[in-house]
What does this fold into?
Amino acid sequence: DVKVTQSSRYLVKRTGEKVFLECVQDMDHENMFWYRQDPGLGLRLIYFSYDVKMKEKGDIPEGYSVSREKKERFSLILESASTNQTSMYLCASSFPGGSGEGANTEAFFGQGTRLTVV
Amino acid sequence: ELKVEQNPLFLSMQEGKNYTIYCNYSTTSDRLYWYRQDPGKSLESLFVLLSNGAVKQEGRLMASLDTKARLSTLHITAAVHDLSATYFCAVDTSGTYKYIFGTGTRLKVLA
It folds into this structure.
């Protein structure tokens, strides 16, 4: 089974702190993603990476940065945490898109990190 | 801008009834995904639909894809309480690496 593991289930941080959220996958996936999930807003893409050291901004990158030094690990960094970053953070990984039946293209998600910034 | 819209957003139904959740998307894509999320948990992959006319079934859930209409449906047959969850559809945009998710349909099956 694909396993995507996030380092923490729950985190409480203070405003202004630098926060690291870690994600590790064991399926040799090229693509990795960070989403945040808020009530009524669904999942919003923060950043994604399609290769080691490669990253692309998603829809809401402000206040975040990412690091991908190894293929299996994708880190989300909150440079200076603010209360409006209180949210559920979800990491995911996948193979690159293919076509035709049998192509294994779905994203697999970690268990989520519920971050509270006080 | 690619948009993925689900309806309804909330669905409360009696056990034993049938219902359909709809997922419309606004751009060309041949790949659509359905996920389930239980409260406080992460997303679990249900179905992967990779071509026009694709139909997948698992237990009381059946998903289909019409790429010409840019529409996918998730049909629930004879609902049971254990199906209570939030269901998301997502589209994999051709030529990019991104998945765009709908806002989710919160399903509550009443005993």
Notes: The interface with chain B takes residues 31, 33, 35, 40-43, 45, 48, 50, 56, 58, 90, 92, 94, 96-97, 99-112 of chain A (CB under 8 Å). The first strand of chain A starts at residue 4 and ends at 6. The radius of gyration of chain A is 14 Å.
